[in-house]
Amino acid sequence: MHAAGQPERHAVALLDGRGVRATPQRTRVLAELVREPNDATAQELHERLRARGERIGLATVYRALSVLADEGVVDVLAHRPGEACYRVCGGEHHHHLVCSSCHRVVELADCRLDTWLDDVAAAHGFDRLEHRLELTGVCADCR
Amino acid sequence: MHAAGQPERHAVALLDGRGVRATPQRTRVLAELVREPNDATAQELHERLRARGERIGLATVYRALSVLADEGVVDVLAHRPGEACYRVCGGEHHHHLVCSSCHRVVELADCRLDTWLDDVAAAHGFDRLEHRLELTGVCADCR
DNA sequence: CTTCCTGCAAAGCATTTGCATCCAT
DNA sequence: ATGGATGCAAATGCTTTGCAGGAAG
After folding, report:
1. Which CATH number fits domain A6-87: 3.40.980.10, 3.40.50.1400, 1.10.10.10, 1.10.357.10?
2. How far is residue B30's CA from residue B61's CA, in Å, rounded to a whole number?
3. Within an 8 Å CB–CB cutoff, is residue A20 touching chain B?
4. Which residue of A has its CA nearest to B141?
5. Which of A96, A143, B12, B103 has its CA 20 to 30 A from that of B36?
6. Which part of chain A has CATH 1.10.10.10?
């Protein structure tokens, strides 16, 4: 068993059972993202895959990420101006705390907004209320 | 006193007392943003100014917004992929509740996140924590 | 006079798309 | 064979920059 095996299997597992083909390229893009604890841009992922010796086009990385985002396998974070960041995320509702300096991401499991938001929705007669919360700050290492 | 006077004066007031020159172009860009209850892109602002008859270049709009952002007069939002949105946010902290059908905006004066966010910041060693909350739903009239 | 500001056009990036080819069913 | 996937290059859209002229201090 070789060292790179685990992210690959994780990636295959994430793709399994969906309506999408688990092509080698998609698996590799996702595996590369699984290796990344925070988030990465399409270009960064492409560079790493090429450095790893994979033959894959930049457009394919973009197309793979688009498919993965549609499937809900990865989240698209728009905290950096001018480029999108991608991240492997669980299905549960959660928010991200992002360091504006090093882009380290902390996943927040609990969301304490629902009680307040129920009140807000009721007070203003709104229905089907959805929310998106982005938290940015400077982490301890970048202070 | 003409109808367009108020946003202009508001813009001049926002620029006053800082180390930046309140040039006509900067004032107009900011005044245009003051008229916008939500947020707008640089290109949208440029279009509106041209439609209003102002002679202003697109690059100047970008440069003005850059200066205004550096001064903290406007906020840069990166929630739309591929382009930056700008918003006047010098005043009180608040959030917007937007109807996804008719785009009516309800301004929420109170924000009940600070207590929780202070805990979050402390728990993860983050400093200068900022947050942006987007609320969308369907209002009573559109139900 | 010197410095900053502006407009225009060209350049710079991230991302998307057209198209011929390739692969799996 | 047939439809989707890929790679490359060209195109697109947002934003920045180089430069010459102009206004402000």
Report:
1. 1.10.10.10
2. 10
3. no
4. A125
5. A96
6. 6-87
Domain with CATH 3.30.1490.190 in chain A: 95-137
Which pLDDT value is given to residue B26? Answer: 97
pLDDT digits (tens, 9 = 90+) for B57-94: 999 999 999 999 999 999 888 777 889 999 887 667 88
Using CB atoms, which residue from A112, A126, A136 is nearest to B138?
A126
Q: A68: number of CA atoms within 13 Å, CB side?
A: 33
- Amino acid identity at B30: L
* Closest Cα in chain A, distance from residue B96 (Å): 11
A54: left (phi over 0), alpha (psi -120 to 50) or beta: beta
**SS3 for A114-126, per residue?**
HHHHHHHHHHHCC
Pairing relationship of beta strands A40-41 and A85-88 according to DSSP bridges? antiparallel
B125 touches chain A (CB under 8 A): yes
What are the structure tokens assigned to B5, written together? 């006077």
CATH code, residues B95-137: 3.30.1490.190
Would the CB atoms of B140 and A134 count as touching at under 8 Å? no
**Residue whose C-alpha is closest to residue A75's, from A25, A134, A22:** A134
pLDDT digits (tens, 9 = 90+) for A67-111: 999 998 998 888 788 899 999 976 678 888 988 778 788 989 888
For chain A, the residue count is 143
Question: CB under 8 Å to A77, separation ≥6 — which residues?
Answer: A39, A84, A85, A86, A87, A96, A98, A105
DSSP string, B90-111: -S---EEEEETTT--EEEE---
Chain A residues closer than 8 Å to B116 by CB: 112
